[in-house]
Amino acid sequence: MGSLSIPFSNPEEEEEETNLAKAKLDQSHFLKLFKCQQNYLNHFFQNLDLSQTLTFTQTLLNARGTIFFTGVGKSGFVAQKISQTLVSLGIKSGFLSPVDALHGDIGILSSKDLLVLFSKSGNTEELLRLVPCAKAKGVYLISVTSAKPNGLMPLCDLNVHLPLERELCPFDLAPPQQLVIWMMISGGRSLNFGEIFLFPSCWIKEFYNQYAFLFHCYELVKDLMKKKEELPVCREHDLIMDQLVELTSKGCGCLLVINDDYHLLGTFTDGDLRRTLKASGEGIFKLTVGEMCNRNPRTIDPDSMAVEAMQKMESPPSPVQFLPVLNDDNVLIGIITLHGLVSAGL
To answer: How far apart are CA 143 and CA 204, in angstroms?
Structure first.
């Protein structure tokens, strides 16, 4: 029978571990590290080539196929995170492991695709071996590196340089500063370099509805609309000045003009009130809602998705703040407002 091996105990090592456990952190040392971190970040933003990053962003915007990201080690984790963010926006994206690619996964690439290679040095062996295989398939290659010149730059179609003064590590070995550049905090959530430049203002409106659809597609108009006593209803023969309380108290900014069968005849907004008052002066006291209401308002059905209501509100010729909700018999059953949609997270 074999015997159990007893681990060798070194008293000096145990004493050193005990001393480390008892060591107290120095506040001034932390302050110095934070100051260095700030200086290194300032260096990054002051030396970043904005025209280069704009080209990078525009290239991704124009992608006809799938945008693949790749990297080794910590760079690979960053590449995966960017890919996951794009997928959440409804953009075709994926992470391609360079090792797996060289063992058959390269088959997923096509000539319409883009491949973004993350490497601090630009000399990562696995990526250098992957490049000729990807080029043979006609893939557009983009390198994102911090050292130049490097091996990837002459091999790729586009190169993005992330200026790095040095690492926070005193021996310049561990890459905390590189990760800070790639994984910066913005707007209360963790964003990396790639994501920051994937969110220029021109993207926001384009992907807003896609993002809202993905995360609020289960919400229907009937789940968010106001109904019954919450509705600001009136009759067409009602005097405008007699309906001011109804117009202002329901928080919808409008009146819904109905007949005895609750069929919608038109809408009258607080904007209509101001325009009528300006045009008619004291004559407004004799005007009925029916005389001044909009007889052809936009409406929506209760089973439509909330994101469709948002799109309908924003459509030409001019945006509106609400939509009456009608059932199949043209009976008014609710109202959905822009404020309600925003409150729901759209």
So the answer is: 25
Higher pLDDT, 204 or 61: 61
Query: Residue 265 belongs to a domain with what CATH number?
Result: 3.10.580.10
What token pair was written down for 277?
């008052």
Question: Do residue 42 and residue 176 come from a single domain?
Answer: yes
The CATH code of the domain that includes 49 is 3.40.50.10490
Token pair, residue 189, equals: 């959530």
Tokens of 30: 């932390």
Which residues does 105 contact at the CB level (< 8 Å), separation at least 6? 96, 97
Q: Range of 96's domain?
A: 29-187
Residue 312 lies in a domain: yes
Tell me, what's the pLDDT at 16?
53
> Would you give the distance in Å from CA 88 to the centre of its chain?
8
Assess whether pLDDT exceeds 90 at residue 262: yes
Q: What is each CA distance from 76 to 53, 81, 121, in whole angstroms?
A: 20, 9, 14
pLDDT digits (tens, 9 = 90+) for 204-245: 444 444 555 555 556 889 999 999 899 999 999 999 999 999
Residue 304 in domain: yes
What is the tens place of the pLDDT at every residue in 287-330? Answer: 999 999 999 999 999 999 888 898 899 888 889 999 999 999 99
Containing H/E element for 144? strand 140-145
Pairing of strands 322-326, 183-186: unpaired
Statement to judge: residues 228 and 179 lie in one domain: no
**Residue at 207 is within a domain:** no
